[in-house]
Amino acid sequence: MNCVFTIMPIYGTRPEAIKMAPIVTALQNSDQFECVVTVTGQHREMLDQVNEIFGITPDHDLNIIQPRQTLNGVLTRTVEGLDRIFEDTPPDAVVVQGDTTTSTAAAIAAFYRGIPVIHAEAGLRSFNLFSPFPEEANRKITSQITSLHLAPTATSKENLLREAITEEDIVVTGNTVIDALLHTVEQQLPFTDPQLEEIASSGKRVLLVTTHRRENQGEAMRGVGRALARIADAEPELTIVLPAHRNPVVREAVLPAIEGKPNVVVTEPLAYGEFTRMLSVAHVVLTDSGGVQEEAPSLGKPVLVMRENTERPEAVTAGTVKLIGTDEERIVTEVDRLLNDDAAYHEMANAVNPYGDGKAAERSLAAIEQMFDVGRRVADFDSQA
Fold first, then answer.
1. Active site residues
2. Per residue in 212-260, pLDDT tens?
3. What structural domains does the chain harbor?
4. Hey, which of 9, 125, 208, 251 has its CA 20 to 30 A from 288?
């Protein structure tokens, strides 16, 4: 009988769940591995929604979330919860995703137990330790204790090589977010909010906005609110859709300026399936989210990013993403340009996706099989191919 290896994907937030889902599915469908899914519940409802779309039932749930939790609280509760599981049933390897505090805590907990770490979406770098905070530090820490680096792009592989990571431990897979996106958009999931169903069928132009980044909270975010109010007044035919993050700090900063505007629709955070459908409906996307920078180009949508730097430079180079920072005037100017200058719009809307081709999970699985000597790697993802 074949020896079956136990692989434990560990994740805690919605973005991790989305990007981990295709890998979980690939592991579950493989004869070589038993896949034991552990969630920390760093985001609660939003995490559960994603697991539902992909039909994933976690085997372990640490449920660590607490109101106004601190990063140190997330870290220590994750390490303690995982340590109990590792003591009882240590897996042969763990898979962590990206750069959340959950992922770094899980990597440390596994490493200290002598369990190999597989890092999905490895090698992203903004080259500023304090921005995005704490993600840049998280991903650098995780890289130091990882045995197999699943880098989404050639650029991320180069970043790892520059940090003296062994080349044979790095595989370029493409980003699993594209696998997840294509799977989900295909389903055309209905909106639970009837307003959104109405907007989608109205054919009106939509500006989709998301904002939550820790380093933008406070005055920068109030500026975003004021900018949206000015755009709403200047473009009465435009509908602005803002799924508001649950964090009260975010809501208190952004919402006062746009209250009562007839063409601004504020919703609760959208379930992943609804969000991807909203992306496909949107005309322009304004965001400070990392993942959206990868998803929107697949659907041919221009993305304006309210950040000063990004660890995802590939789409900036490809021209589908533009970094505009959080200055109120600049946001108003850049959105106006995309709404009213067709040439500028079409230049950004050409759907070249440097991030993936929908086969990232397949490449990831092959790399994990080779790690355990039960299979062979396949050719790396090449965005030029």
1. 99, 121, 135, 212, 214, 245
2. 887 788 898 999 999 999 999 999 999 999 999 888 988 999 999 999 9
3. 5-175+356-371 (3.40.50.2000), 192-349 (3.40.50.2000)
4. 9
